């Protein structure tokens, strides 16, 4: 069960295609469900069937990161969960700065999943004088002008942009200048001109809507 | 280029595995990007390379829905975009009821992507007397007790749950009883006991965080 180093892959900027990393999250969810259901082993065929992937695709995805399975036996669920968390980097705590104390920022601050996944929001910023100084989920909203100073002081490594579209680029530029290494962008705009060493992920709510639309348009029978 | 009917697939409740439907959204985004870049044709190998999938997986996914490509030539981008939109059901307008006029509901009401994808929010509900009657993005927050009546009157077909976790199940039950055919759930809880004809999609923000965590943990060099 070596995690090890994995070979660089020319298909993606970070060495691994984004779609493969997304599938790691899906494998993780299915493995956790299997464990809750009492399973200890899972084959690539079983994981593939749960996700509509061929067993060859599952083996190919996981083989990028190391040798996890046992031929003819499959994967040990607990071991593979630990290995995937290690690969995803969710086996440690991340300190997060949130930009935007509006509706979305407040909603995200209250989102339980952040803390349980090890993402601790250590600062919230806004440019609106009416919001600065307000208390939110145990944090005081700070002036975005202080962002750089606070990010350094509190050793914040990730930024979460919950600002309006028109403010997102400036927020990203400030975060990058302050030294964060990753930005999760909820604003519906593409960020540009960021240093190559700052990772970015954008949340695409349109995809979720399309999934629902599909499910409805193709449900077994209409009432 | 027949859209046609597709065969039922035993792997998923709706006939097609969710992961395949998710990949349709990814194919759609890549095709739209290719078109913006001036491309008119795309092979399964090209689409696969952009998403880290084998060309066989791409062909297998699309073959579920019909015969779209031309052997040795590939897919016509515009035609495949139209076909995928037709499959996803995003080639028409959907009328949506939002439950929850708190921070998340307000944030989602202001999200541009909804309208541009053809999802029109026609009503917003809350149980809090302090919120009922407030005006939000051109809508007046209504008493959730009136949900059933309003859903029928305005012929609303989808529900969007932006309520707190503890209120999500009741909201879902009300929506289903009122006759919506699909529910997009932003609350971090699993909904249960819904009629089989009501489709559900849950938004998992943890996946997005894992993608960022991975990108950061595996970025080319540390500064």
Automatic annotation (TrEMBL), chains A, B:
Keyword hit for NAD: yes
Keyword Cytoplasm assigned: yes
InterPro entries: CoA-bd (IPR003781), NAD(P)-bd_dom_sf (IPR036291), Rex_actinobacterial-type (IPR058236), Rex_DNA-bd_C_dom (IPR009718), Tscrpt_rep_Rex (IPR022876), WH-like_DNA-bd_sf (IPR036388), WH_DNA-bd_sf (IPR036390)
Record: residues binding NAD(+): 100-105
One GO CC term on file: cytoplasm
GO molecular function, one term: DNA binding
DNA-binding span(s): 26-65
Protein known as: Redox-sensing transcriptional repressor Rex
Protein source organism: Pseudobythopirellula maris
């Amino acid at each position: 069960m070596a995690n090890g180093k994995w070979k660089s892959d020319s298909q993606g900027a970070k060495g691994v295609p984004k779609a493969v990393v997304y599938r790691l999250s899906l494998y993780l969810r299915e493995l956790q469900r299997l464990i809750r259901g009492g399973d200890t082993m899972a084959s690539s065929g079983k994981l593939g069937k749960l996700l509509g992937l061929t067993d060859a695709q599952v083996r190919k995805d996981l083989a990028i990161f190391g040798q996890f399975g046992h031929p003819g036996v499959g994967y040990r669920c607990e071991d593979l969960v630990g290995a995937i968390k290690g690969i995803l980097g969710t086996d440690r705590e991340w300190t997060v700065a949130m930009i935007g104390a509006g509706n979305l920022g407040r909603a995200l601050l209250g989102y339980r999943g952040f803390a349980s996944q090890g993402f601790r929001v250590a600062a919230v910023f806004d440019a609106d004088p009416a919001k600065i100084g307000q208390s939110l989920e145990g944090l005081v909203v700070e002036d975005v002008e202080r962002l750089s100073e606070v990010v350094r002081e509190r050793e914040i490594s990730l930024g979460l942009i919950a600002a309006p579209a028109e403010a997102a680029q400036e927020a990203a530029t400030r975060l990058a200048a302050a030294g964060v290494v990753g930005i999760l962008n909820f604003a519906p705009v593409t960020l540009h001109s960021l240093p190559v060493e700052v990772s970015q992920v954008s949340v695409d709510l349109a995809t979720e809507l399309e999934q629902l639309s599909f499910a409805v348009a193709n449900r077994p029978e209409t009432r």
